[in-house]
Design brief:
The complex is a heterodimer. Chain A is 0% helix and 58% strand. Chain A is mostly beta strands. In chain A, strands 2, 4, 5, 9, 10 and 11 form a six-stranded mixed β-sheet that branches. In chain A, strands 1-3-8-7-6 form a five-stranded antiparallel β-sheet, with no helix packed on it. In chain A, strand 7 and strand 8 form a beta hairpin. Chain A is globular and about 40 Å long. The chains are: A mainly beta, B mainly beta. The A-B interface holds A 31-32, 34, 36, 41-46, 49, 51-53, 89, 93, 98-106 and B 31, 33, 35, 42-43, 45, 48, 50, 56, 58-59, 89, 91, 93, 98-109, 111.
Amino acid sequence: KQEVTQIPAALSVPEGENLVLNCSFTDSAIYNLQWFRQDPGKGLTSLLLIQSSQREQTSGRLNASLDKSSGRSTLYIAASQPGDSATYLCAVSSYSSASKIIFGSGTRLSIRP
Amino acid sequence: GAGVSQSPSNKVTEKGKDVELRCDPISGHTALYWYRQRLGQGLEFLIYFQGNSAPDKSGLPSDRFSAERTGESVSTLTIQRTQQEDSAVYLCASSLSYGTALGCTFGSGTRLTVV
């Protein structure tokens, strides 16, 4: 059974810092791993999708890496801005979870001006 | 359409009433998911549709919850005899297919408040 864990649960950093959010999963037989952003009271916005055969994806100041063998993914945010404040969710689709996309509980990020 | 559309965006209902939530997936997406998110909580899987296959209903919390989807079109989630614990944001997502290397796209959700 696939389980997804995100550490830390909350993070507060000053503006301009680079930061890393962590996601771990128990079953490495995955189809893909997706990072989402959720603003308070809003739906989910897809940030980056890493397919099973890929090691990383980049979009602007965001870089996501995937290491299937260790069951880990990281989301790197460069030069953080107050507008980056949101909850970041990691989600995995895998053989063992059948039709369910399994979500981590998220990291609540706050960027201080 | 260009994205996943959910309606209504907000719904306030009295305890005991039935409600129907609608999800219009991206055209051509065969897979459709419903999730529930209570305030301050993570996403709970409710139900999954894949084309004309039997849906995976394993996440529905009680028999008051049901969902339908005809083919690859609109899906409706119905909650009968609503209770206060049903208050949450109900999120719908679609993808081209499960079991591929493709990700999913979420709608903006329906915020349900049972008073």
